[in-house]
Amino acid sequence: MTDITPELLEKIRSRFHHVEECPYQGPRIFFENAGGALTLKSVVETSAKFAAIPDNQGRDNPASHALVEVINRAKADMAVLMNASSGQFFVGESGTELLFRMIRTACVNAPKGAKVLGSSLEHPASRSAARRWAAIAELDYVNVRHDDAIGTVTAEAYAAHVTPDVAVATILHTSPVTGMGVDVAAVSAAIRKVAPDCLIIVDGIQHAAHGQLDIDSYGVDGYAISPYKVFSRHGYGVAWISDRLSLLPHDMLIDAPAKGWEFGTRDTGAYATTSDLVAYFDWLGGEVSQETDRRRRIEAAGHAIHAHEKRLTDAMIHGLGNVKGLKEMANVTIIGGADNPAREGLVSIVVKDMPSPDVVARLNEQGIRTHTRKADHYSRNILDPLGLPDCIRVSICHYNSEREVAQFLAALEGIVCGADA
């Protein structure tokens, strides 16, 4: 397998819209990928194509038959991308909405008095759903504390709280605030060792763009992603559920198929754009490896993405050439520590005595797009224990470059030095 070379990086960047400029701001560097990644050009073309088709699925006409074929092919493509040999895929309003539906179904089918296990690391998409439906279903919610110092939660931390009556568990695959990943397979194994029948549901929304997806290895029952965070568009989410979760009583139309989880006529274009995602990963895998099997190429793409993004975050933290890294800048604190092997394409920082929104605004004036995470309902579970009112999130993807990192560091150093003056 080869790395993402400068020549390949140019090919990669050519496949995305608005890599170097914002249609409203003009030239800019995009380090706000955790809020929504850049969009593949093929996704935009596919969306327009299917938006123009008037026919629906399930009719006896050539157009309808073709739409059903597109949907079935997309589901098969997603199974390859996410390495799911069983279960089913379906789309919904958003990744958050799908997490709520999966967690709700798991909770209302659990025995009264059972436990729901989750962690303080989680985004409110899963944490809110678990706490709400645990209360409604008369279950006890058990909170696993994440490690503030490293910005993640371990299998050992989950294991300390698992009891045989844990019926539902939720896991965040990667934090959109700290940028740290969780070993989902290890957490799942720790849960099943004590509560083998537990229904385990994973929020993969932040993780999906940054490397491997391998559902067969996780040992879980539900997994959700938001395609707008993985090179597609807004307006839909994708969920995978196990055969066991599929067959539980759930919201559905009377006399509908027992495994049906979708409501109404879905957007065929949403399904079709997931095939565009898979085709992109497949193409990239072919550029960085000699693999002939599609799944192997996708795995190679994931390894190359992870390696490239690690180079960029390492450069951001430790410096690049003569440009100082975040670790060397006075008054800059890196959330989760400078040397953290769990990091996935994201560095969150605070600048002493400077409100994060002010830093973000000053970077934006120089054409560098970052984002403020405030201690609100989205992020207070991470920031409050650290005593922080906010932080600056700098999030990258594999189409970003070392040149962009160097420009960001130089701009930030100027802002920090100005604060010291």
UniProtKB/TrEMBL annotation:
UniProt domain Aminotransferase class V: residue ranges: 29-245, 303-408
Sorted UniProt keywords: Aminotransferase, Pyridoxal phosphate, Transferase
One Pfam family per UniProt: Aminotran_5
GO MF assignments: transaminase activity
InterPro entries: Aminotrans_V_dom, PyrdxlP-dep_Trfase, PyrdxlP-dep_Trfase_major, PyrdxlP-dep_Trfase_small
Name under which the protein is recorded: Aminotransferase class V-fold PLP-dependent enzyme
Taxonomic lineage from the root: Bacteria, Pseudomonadati, Pseudomonadota, Alphaproteobacteria, Rhodobacterales
